[in-house]
Each structure stands twice: as structure tokens, then as C-alpha cells.
Amino acid sequence: MDVLLSHSEDEDDELIGNTALCLSNCITESSAAVRHVTSAARDRDVIMTLLVLARDQAKPTVQHNCAVLIARLVRGHTPYLARLRELHGVEILHTVLTHFTSRRDS
To answer: 78-102 burial, b for 16+ CB within 10 Å, e for fewer?
Structure first.
């Protein structure tokens, strides 16, 4: 989780994308994983960080993996859903996932 929350411009895109993918898979498998992720995030704004990564990363697969992680986090943790709505994140996710799907299909 620290890789995502404390990313820098120098971070490897693949590392960020793979971390988001792994966390997404863990969250799908276990509700305990959601608790672990929320605990690891502590007071940091994980939804804001993931939205920025989903919106701004150069590689579409990294954007997609961050968007999927957000979607899975908000399903398991109501405060994250509220934060997503507050940040107009649903619109951002829609744009990212639509863009990813259109690039993949072409």
C-alpha cells in the first residue's frame, strides 16, 4: 500500500500498476484484506491518491488497475464510497475505464 500512497514521479509505472492489481485481487478474495488495506492507509487519502494515479498515469494498464482497485475498495468500505462521490470520482473512473476499453478494442 505504501507504494501507492507515497508514489513519486520517479516510481516505476509497472510497480504501481502491479501493486494496484495485487491489492485488487486480495480485496476480491477476502474482506479481511479490505480491513488490512484501510488500516494500512490510516489517515491518508487513499481514494484521492488512487484517482490521481488513475487519471494521470501514462500507461493505460496502470490507470485501469488503479481504477479497478478504487471500485473494489468502495464496495467494501462505505467511507471510501462517500469520498469517491465527494471527489466526483465516479466521473473520473467512467472516463478512465471508457478510454481503456476503447483503446483495447481498437
So the answer is: eebbebbeeeebeebbeebbeebee
- What's the pLDDT score for residue 102? 75
91: confidence class by pLDDT, cuts 50, 70, 90: very high
Q: How many domains, the chain?
A: 1
How much is the pTM? Answer: 0.82
In the block, cell 500507461 appears at: 59
Asked if 37 and 3 count as a contact pair (C-beta separation under 8 A), the reply is: no
Q: 85: domain range?
A: 2-105
Distances (CA, A) of 34 to 4, 23, 45, 97: 15, 9, 15, 22
Contact 32, 71 (CB under 8 A): no
Measured distance CA(24)–CA(44) in Å, rounded: 18
